[in-house]
Design goal:
Blueprint lengths: L13 H15 L1 H10 L15 H23 L5 E3 L3 H12 L4 H20 L2 H7 L3 H23 L2 E4 L3 E4 L5 H18 L5 H15 L25 H5 L7 H28 L11 H18 L4 E3 L3 H6 L5 H14 L3 H4 L4 H15 L11 H17 L2 H18 L8 H17 L1
Antiparallel strand pairs: 1-4, 2-3
Helix pairs in contact: 1-14, 2-3, 3-12, 3-14, 5-11, 5-12, 7-11, 7-16, 7-17, 7-18, 8-9, 8-16, 9-16, 11-18, 17-18, 18-19
This protein binds guanine.
Keywords: Cell membrane, Membrane, Transmembrane, Transmembrane helix, Transport
GO molecular function, one term: purine nucleobase transmembrane transporter activity
Subcellular location: Cell membrane
């Protein structure tokens, strides 16, 4: 096992990998609660039952998709990167596709399934790998740093530290609110542990926050430890129904748009996440992602499996960087995360303690770790500084990893060409320029 995962070469051991996998799981566990709430459109009252997915089935689908995706990633690509249904695409699935466009959730799942199959095809032809490896090193660092800002922003929001402000979009929240105070406690504890160089500081910080939350009465003590798993039957295989019974609802322009959006966002989000986490773990070689094809294959398989089980796009999670920060370096950590997701199906009552104030400190501190790649960018070269900077700031400001990548990648060939560095631009970067310009024209 140690040889299979190359523990020696990567300077790691079972303890680090297990703590890393556990930390990643705890950082991601919120999706088990959030995904069913989102996909069943809980925030929208008075919907006909037929428009709502079954919450129990979505919960099991979420846990199984995360488990299977993380296990494939760990065993096949051997990266410490775990997967689960992505936030952002789950909101797009529920609020845009089902609620606004009026597409049935079954057909929306078919859209996810088709986008996953196209993904596998792109991966098997090697095109996806080629695209990722054609991205210049400095933009890759920018993507990592931008995702760091994005994840910190998500953490601050979850903590209630940054809130909506109608006049200027964002503002400081009520810092005396119980959950916000608990999150601030978690941030301070985690910062102290990390500054002292305590291994697993992020994980210990989460445990301490959860315990203090329970003592303070902000987090309910779990009602039990184990419970029977809900039935998967209401969503299992529903993605295939429209293909056999209602093909007319699939072959429409509207569905084409939906499938392309799923495909586009997942493609570039995954590319950014894989590179950022691999960079952080020191696993990149000569600016290239080793075994990129396998990692991408694992990601696309997870989307297909997730769609059949009954969830929106399953993707590589940036929260994996919390596990890497806690010491994870190999696929063993992803196997640990995957097994925990599998077990979580029965341990649902225990998961109730993983609330937003518990996960927020981890997200914020992970952001600090991820922006360290800013130091690798040559800020004195304006032609590099502009696309790098725009990639970085656009991610939190547009709340989209993919949009940040798109903006930066549009500016890169422009500034490089004007500076007379045309020869350094990989031909694929021109192709991406055209695709991203079309993307903006399209979403406009
Ligand atoms: N990379 C990435 N990480 C996430 N963590 C939670 N949701 C997402 C997502 O959609 N993409």
């Amino acid at each position: 096992m140690r040889n299979f995962f190359q523990f020696e070469q990567l300077g790691t051991n079972y303890k680090r990998e297990i703590i890393g996998g556990l930390t990643t799981f705890l950082s991601m566990a919120y999706i088990l609660v959030v995904n069913p709430l989102t996909l069943t459109l809980q925030s929208v009252p008075d919907l006909p039952d037929s428009m709502r997915m079954d919450a129990g089935a979505v919960f099991v689908a979420t846990a199984l998709a995360a488990a299977i995706g993380s296990l494939i990633m760990g065993l096949l690509a051997k990266y410490p990167i775990a997967l689960a249904p992505g936030m952002g695409l789950n909101a797009f699935f529920a609020y845009t596709v089902v609620l606004t466009m009026g597409v049935s959730w079954q057909s929306a799942l078919t859209g996810v399934l088709i986008s996953g199959l196209i993904f596998i095809a792109l991966t098997l032809t090697g095109l996806r790998e080629k695209i990722i490896n054609s991205i210049p090193a400095e933009l890759k660092f920018a993507v990592g740093a931008g995702i760091g800002l994005f994840i910190t922003f998500v953490g601050f929001q979850n903590a209630g530290i940054i809130v909506n402000n109608d006049a200027v979009l964002v503002g400081v929240g009520d810092l005396t609110h119980g959950n916000t105070l608990l999150a601030i406690f978690g941030i301070v504890v985690t910062v102290i542990l990390m500054t002292k160089g305590v291994k697993g500081g992020i994980f210990i910080g989460m445990v301490a926050t959860a315990i203090v939350g329970m003592v303070a009465g902000l987090i309910d003590t779990p009602k039990g430890i184990v419970d029977a798993a809900p039935s998967l039957a209401p969503t299992f295989g529903a993605a295939l129904d429209p293909l056999f019974n209602d093909a007319g609802s699939i072959f429409t322009i509207q569905m084409l748009v939906v499938v392309l959006t799923f495909l586009f966002v997942d493609f570039f989000d995954t590319a950014g996440t894989l590179v950022a986490v691999a960079n952080q773990a020191g696993l990149m070689k000569n600016n290239k992602l080793p075994r990129a094809g396998k990692a991408l294959f694992a990601d696309s398989c997870a989307t297909v499996v997730g769609a059949i089980l009954g969830t929106s796009t399953t993707t590589s999670y940036i929260e994996s960087s919390a596990g890497v920060a806690a010491g994870a370096r190999t696929g063993f950590a992803s196997v640990v995360t995957g097994i925990l997701f599998l077990l979580s199906i029965f341990f649902f009552p225990l998961l109730a303690v993983i609330t937003a104030p518990v996960t927020a400190p981890a997200l914020i501190i992970v952001g600090v770790l991820m922006v360290s790649s800013l130091g690798e960018i040559d800020w004195k070269k304006f032609e590099i500084a502009v696309p790098a900077f725009l990639t970085i700031v656009a991610m939190p400001l547009t709340y989209s990893i993919a949009t940040g990548i798109a903006i930066g990648f549009i500016f890169y060939p422009i500034t490089m060409m004007i500076k007379g560095r045309r020869k350094e631009i990989h031909p694929i970067m021109y192709g991406l320029f055209v695709i991203f310009v079309l993307y903006f024209i399209f979403i406009a």
